[in-house]
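Project outcomes to date are best conveyed with an example. Our students and postdoctoral researchers have been running inverse folding experiments weekly, and each run begins with a structure described purely in tokens. The record below, which covers 184 residues, was selected by the lab manager from last quarter's runs and is presented without edits.
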């Protein structure tokens, strides 16, 4: 089946799949190259932790990636959540300002920059505890009192902060432009 037919709501987690043994390598390569050449994914069943799952197999480099899929009863109907969202009138000014902020703060996908702040804080807490150092009570964040969305968008714009990815992207563009000027 085409990968595009699998709604992202059904995706659970990926697994790398590799062959086992010489006979396995041959069959593995045939399956991998067949689904790659047809630009398809293959559906299969797999048992993990005493439970049967449906898995979508797709060619990835020299191996296969298997994506565990949810069963239909595990996917909730979006209307259960979205039907109560009110329709609001969005002004052109709001959209223009929001679009400008998004464009200003946009960057590229850099998963190596992901950080689990809770895990880091827990590791720090455990290290202090092991050293016998006193543990400070967590501070509560001050409540925010944003009243007007346009004011909040303008404040965000005026802060002038850019994401690190956006700053790097801008620097790369500036370097390319400099190189072009020197070459010309």
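After processing, the design step wrote out the following sequence:
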């Amino acid at each position: 089946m085409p990968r595009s037919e699998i709604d992202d709501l059904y995706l659970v987690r990926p697994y790398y799949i590799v062959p086992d043994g010489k006979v396995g390598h041959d069959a593995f390569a045939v399956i991998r190259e067949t689904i790659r050449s047809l630009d398809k994914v293959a559906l299969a069943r797999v048992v993990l932790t005493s439970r049967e799952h449906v898995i979508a197999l797709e060619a990835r480099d020299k191996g296969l990636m298997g994506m565990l899929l949810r069963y239909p009863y595990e996917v909730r109907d979006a209307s259960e959540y979205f039907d109560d969202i009110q329709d609001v009138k969005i002004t052109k000014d709001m959209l223009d300002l929001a679009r400008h902020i998004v464009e200003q703060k946009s960057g590229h996908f850099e998963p190596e920059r992901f950080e689990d702040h809770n895990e880091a804080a827990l590791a720090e807490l455990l290290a202090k505890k092991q050293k016998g150092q006193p543990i400070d009570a967590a501070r509560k964040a001050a409540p925010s009192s944003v009243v007007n969305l346009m004011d909040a968008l303008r404040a965000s714009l005026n802060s002038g902060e850019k994401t690190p990815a956006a700053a790097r992207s801008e620097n790369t563009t500036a370097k390319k432009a400099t190189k072009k000027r020197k070459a010309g």
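The beta strands are 11-17, 42-48, 51-60, 63-69. The CA atoms of residues 55 and 66 lie 6 Å apart. The training component of this project remains on track.
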